[in-house]
Amino acid sequence: MRLSVWTYEGPPHVGAIRVATAMEGVHYVLHAPQGDTYADLLFTMIERRPARPAVSYTTFQARDLGRDTADLFKSSAIAAYERFRPEALLVGSSCTAELLQDDPGGLAKTLGLPIPVVPLDLPSYQRKETWGASETFYHLTRAMAGPMAPAAGADRPARPEGQAPSCNILGPVALGFRHRDDVYEVRRLLESLGVQINVVAPMGARPADLARLGEADFNVVLYPEVADTAARWLEKTFRQPRTHAVPIGVGATRDFVREVAELAGLDPEPTLASLTPRLPWYSRSVDSTYLTGKRVFVFGDATHALAAARVATEEMGFEVVGLGTYVREFARDIRAAAKAYGVEPVISDDYLEVESAIADLRPDLVLGTQMERHVAKRLGVPCAVISAPVHVQDFPARHAPQMGVEGANVLFDTWVHPLMMGLEEHLLGMFREDFEFHGDAGPSHLASASAARPSASGASPASDSPSTESVADSSSTESASIPTAADSGVGVVDAPVWSADAERELHKIPFFVRGKARRNTERYATERGVPTITVETLYDAKAHFSR
């Protein structure tokens, strides 16, 4: 564990709170000092939940360390049971209380509570929030469904003839990125196939529902980071197969339908024929300026990052230049995908390392978390959020899924609009000082009105305002061949400094080739030992690389 201004994940007990809060009839007693009681803020402010998270804290203070903190935990557990009357109780320690070694699980067993008590041993100094959610769901599943398990080696009973196949939907939790809306879309897909939903968990499930998990024919794993461990245990214990396709994007949704149909013994064709996403047509019809060949950097949890990379390349015409995740438990999957795309994987939970990778690659679009949104804004690169961690604006009141047919449509809108609006902002800035199109100019077809109003800069139409021709010429660097430092054989020296005039001139170049123009100019100046880049240097570099 290390201190950081920003962090992709909190400690594992936050993951446990996400599971407890998503469920009904579950309460979490957390042995924690007063400073670790910030979960209310996460769930009520960011996710805008109408109720407090399902957690009680012992909230011991420094003066309590001189007496028995174990007694404080036991009294807190009894008070939580009497107040909330849960059907199952989770108990554990926060990262700070873990140092006291009070053993909340053992202490809770001595209380003789008339409900299942599930102890959570979550090593805060080795693991993170997503892993904590996975472990919590796994232990709850074992505690509730374990007593219903068939004898070892027994065959799974055949489904009665005429009975519709059923499945469990596993993985959605509180504070999950669009989990509520994803579940709605996946339900529609499954019902269109003729599959009944047995249990959705953790979101909305009760402990008694977890006891019924073994009744389903198979499991649909929507978010492997949370549900994979529990699904593996169910597969081993109840002989329940599980899905592997995650329906994010058109191609993955079709793969998901086919996989579910095979597990359920159903015909997928009627459902496949009914899928009419707008994304493929929109991607083909939109101006190639916005899409074709755009260089994208993808970062997030493994599920969303892998799905986004596939959609970007196969369905949007983008080129993936960077791919990474902060969930180290799924680093192998990211590395395999990165190798297939021919890029270097970024496996890190340090946002500064991710920022450095983005700055080096200079992509045209960043698909990431709220951290990458801040980084991209600082670097002047368009960005769309595809994964947790997210902020309040990514929990919209409207229906905005990532999965299924409607999810594919949402992806198109979310990813393309930053590029389109970025171009619009560039054009507005480019013509801001134009004698005819500035904000104070009158209608162009009324000469008297135009002549009566001064230009925005106060200059006459014949003034030396930048011409659109020079901007168009600057953008020709898009097609220039760009030698690398290795090609030139020149060693790396101190980066040249941009003069204010050169920076202003650079920003007249369209945003989608501005990064390339900046790189070319800096390389040109470095090779010639030019310490300060001026407007003349910028145009000399343009002429050099345009040959």
UniProtKB/TrEMBL annotation:
<keyword id="KW-0004">4Fe-4S</keyword>
<dbReference type="Pfam" id="PF00148">
    <property type="entry name" value="Oxidored_nitro"/>
</dbReference>
<comment type="function">
    <text>Component of the dark-operative protochlorophyllide reductase (DPOR) that uses Mg-ATP and reduced ferredoxin to reduce ring D of protochlorophyllide (Pchlide) to form chlorophyllide a (Chlide). This reaction is light-independent. The NB-protein (BchN-BchB) is the catalytic component of the complex.</text>
</comment>
<comment type="similarity">
    <text>Belongs to the ChlB/BchB/BchZ family.</text>
</comment>
<feature type="domain" description="Nitrogenase/oxidoreductase component 1">
    <location>
        <begin position="12"/>
        <end position="419"/>
    </location>
</feature>
<comment type="pathway">
    <text>Porphyrin-containing compound metabolism; bacteriochlorophyll biosynthesis (light-independent).</text>
</comment>
<dbReference type="GO" id="GO:0036070">
    <property type="term" value="P:light-independent bacteriochlorophyll biosynthetic process"/>
</dbReference>
<keyword id="KW-0067">ATP-binding</keyword>
<dbReference type="InterPro" id="IPR042298">
    <property type="entry name" value="P-CP_red_C"/>
</dbReference>
<feature type="binding site">
    <location>
        <begin position="422"/>
        <end position="423"/>
    </location>
    <ligand>
        <name>substrate</name>
    </ligand>
</feature>
<dbReference type="GO" id="GO:0016636">
    <property type="term" value="F:oxidoreductase activity, acting on the CH-CH group of donors, iron-sulfur protein as acceptor"/>
</dbReference>
<dbReference type="InterPro" id="IPR013580">
    <property type="entry name" value="LI-POR_suB-like_C"/>
</dbReference>
<dbReference type="InterPro" id="IPR050152">
    <property type="entry name" value="ChlB/BchB/BchZ"/>
</dbReference>
<feature type="active site" description="Proton donor">
    <location>
        <position position="287"/>
    </location>
</feature>
<feature type="domain" description="Light-independent protochlorophyllide reductase subunit B-like C-terminal">
    <location>
        <begin position="498"/>
        <end position="542"/>
    </location>
</feature>
<keyword id="KW-0560">Oxidoreductase</keyword>
<protein>
    <recommendedName>
        <fullName>Light-independent protochlorophyllide reductase subunit B</fullName>
        <ecNumber>1.3.7.7</ecNumber>
    </recommendedName>
</protein>
<dbReference type="GO" id="GO:0005524">
    <property type="term" value="F:ATP binding"/>
</dbReference>
<keyword id="KW-0479">Metal-binding</keyword>
<feature type="compositionally biased region" description="Low complexity">
    <location>
        <begin position="444"/>
        <end position="481"/>
    </location>
</feature>
<dbReference type="GO" id="GO:0019685">
    <property type="term" value="P:photosynthesis, dark reaction"/>
</dbReference>
<feature type="binding site">
    <location>
        <position position="36"/>
    </location>
    <ligand>
        <name>[4Fe-4S] cluster</name>
    </ligand>
</feature>
<comment type="subunit">
    <text>Protochlorophyllide reductase is composed of three subunits; BchL, BchN and BchB. Forms a heterotetramer of two BchB and two BchN subunits.</text>
</comment>
<dbReference type="GO" id="GO:0016730">
    <property type="term" value="F:oxidoreductase activity, acting on iron-sulfur proteins as donors"/>
</dbReference>
<dbReference type="Pfam" id="PF08369">
    <property type="entry name" value="PCP_red"/>
</dbReference>
<keyword id="KW-0411">Iron-sulfur</keyword>
<dbReference type="InterPro" id="IPR000510">
    <property type="entry name" value="Nase/OxRdtase_comp1"/>
</dbReference>
<dbReference type="GO" id="GO:0051539">
    <property type="term" value="F:4 iron, 4 sulfur cluster binding"/>
</dbReference>
<keyword id="KW-0602">Photosynthesis</keyword>
<dbReference type="GO" id="GO:0046872">
    <property type="term" value="F:metal ion binding"/>
</dbReference>
<dbReference type="InterPro" id="IPR005969">
    <property type="entry name" value="Protochl_reductB"/>
</dbReference>
<keyword id="KW-0547">Nucleotide-binding</keyword>
<dbReference type="InterPro" id="IPR016209">
    <property type="entry name" value="Protochlorophyllide_Rdtase"/>
</dbReference>
<feature type="region of interest" description="Disordered">
    <location>
        <begin position="444"/>
        <end position="484"/>
    </location>
</feature>
<keyword id="KW-0149">Chlorophyll biosynthesis</keyword>
<keyword id="KW-0408">Iron</keyword>
<keyword id="KW-0077">Bacteriochlorophyll biosynthesis</keyword>
